[in-house]
Amino acid sequence: MGEVPDIVIGRLPIYLRALKHLMAADKEFTSSQELGRILGIGSAQIRKDLSHFGEFGKQGTGYEISYLSDQISKILNVDRDWSVALVGFGDLGQALAHYAGFASKGFHIDIIFDNDPAKLGESAKGTPVLDVSQIGPIIAERKIRIAIIAVPASAAQAVAEQLVDSGIRAILSYAPITLKLPEYVRVQYIDPVTHLQRMTYYLA
Q1: What CA–CA distances, in Å, run from 25 to 29, 65, 80, 93?
Q2: Is the dihedral angle over the CA atoms 143, 126, 16, 55 positive or is it negative?
Q3: What is the mean pLDDT of the chain?
Q4: Which of 59, 139, 187, 201 is deepest in the core (most CB within 10 A)?
Q5: What tens digit of pLDDT does each residue of 144-157 get?
Q6: Which domains does the chain show, CATH number per domain?
Q7: What is the rounded CA–CA span in Å between residue 87 and residue 173?
Q8: How far apart are CA 146 and CA 27, in angstroms?
Q9: pLDDT for res 143
Q10: 174, exposed or middle or buried, with CB in 10 Å at 0-12, 13-18, 19+?
């Protein structure tokens, strides 16, 4: 199997979400046409995306939903639980720490860091808030590989470098800045303001 385009990887979680909804509705089989209608994606595109990883459907019956869901989960490595470090315990960080959607999908915020002495010793659902100076030893000791950054833009680059030096290899960043990190580190950005600005273009 050759290198899979990142845009294809980005669509797999969307397929997985749709399959989970179908399973919740007690459906056993689906087709690329049905998935396409649900997601607004061409059925040929769905078949092409899945073909990067093997053959999952059968002519005439389509895809067995539970099987395809299991296979995509394995491909994405979400058939297991992941420990996540959260850096930043301001308004956004607190909201993320209390968001139940992470744990329900296997991502558990097991440690929180902040540089505000007033926040140290607090906890979110039993997870303690520690000083950022402890990032290195704790991340290394616990072998955590995923981190979420919810700090101001001015601090994000330094925090990201500290995380990478400690063993983090995947970062979800809410900071409105593009991080400069080694290529082996996967970074995803979430900036709600840019999404709002993209939509307001169409409201003229």
Answers
A1: 11, 11, 24, 34
A2: positive
A3: 94
A4: 139
A5: 999 999 999 999 99
A6: 6-75 (1.10.10.10), 82-195 (3.40.50.720)
A7: 10
A8: 34
A9: 94
A10: middle
